[in-house]
Known about the structure:
The protein has no helices and 13 strands. By secondary structure, it is mostly beta strands.
Amino acid sequence: MIRPIKIIIIPEDLPSPTSRILSKVNNGTKDTEEYVTTIGGMLSEAYIRDAGSTNTITASVTYTGDKITKIKYQDNVNPHVVDNLYTISYTNGKMSAISMDQTAMSTTNHSDFTVFYDAGGQLYRIVEKKKMGGSTSYTHYVEHKFTFSSSNVAKVDYTAMLMSGGNPDTSTASTITYSYDNYDSKINPYTTLPKRIFYGNRYLIPDQFLYAFFQ
């Protein structure tokens, strides 16, 4: 069974349309990840396949100019377990906000992400406010705060709490810190993919981030 996935949008530049990008990831005799490009070399779709079944998640990418503005994730299960639409906004050429609309097993959820940068333009934190279970008000707050060492992520502080009256309820907050070190000099093939998308064939929770996209 394919587990639900969560997408994290990373504000980086796209590879050159003429660049070669990662095509397939193989597990035994099965391609568990496949990345399809246009004639011009731009990523158009990705397929994430469960190694032990026919379950597949398709990610369809929409561009406005050279920027990714929508990503649609949908599985081939009826009813859908994964059915997410991400809409991406930019300010002065940098990604500044993302909205996510999700329908899963007849339940609707909505998230609004805000992306923050430091004075030098480096990614600083991403805040997500969630409306769960069809709520018209925000119910959950999640923050990822990033610390970089050169161009590599050295630490992520993950803070989650409930929301009340539209505000985070700090009395319910919990924080987990994840540290990353010992980066090698090898070229990671995932860095050839568009760096505004960040996903994998697993449930992406903070301790499973594929930080190749930050390197």
